[in-house]
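Friendly challenge for the regulars: who can give me the structure tokens for this chain first? No prize, just bragging rights.
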Amino acid sequence: APSASAKKANPTPEAMLPVARDNFKRWNDALQTKNPKTVASLYSNSELSFLPTVSPEHIKKIDSTQEYFEAFVLKNPFGTITDDSVIVFDDGESYLHSGM
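First reply, four minutes later:
Bragging rights claimed.
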């Protein structure tokens, strides 16, 4: 049996890619509801910060997130991944999913 101090293997980018794609699908499905609260609920309430794609503002609070998506969902967004990759950080606790 492995000891308690044994370090678990870090997930590979290949192993995290399905997770990243599933999270993208959840986000895209939320957009299709056209409900800004549904989309905003996917974002963390603590230390929230993201750079939106169609606004010059740096979003820093959950209220601002919902306001941003009120306008965003009216544009009928729909995402499709055509090429992507994942970089894994913090022993798999976080990742960067990028692509087109």
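The beta strands are 84-89, 94-99. The mean pLDDT is 85. Your move, everyone else.
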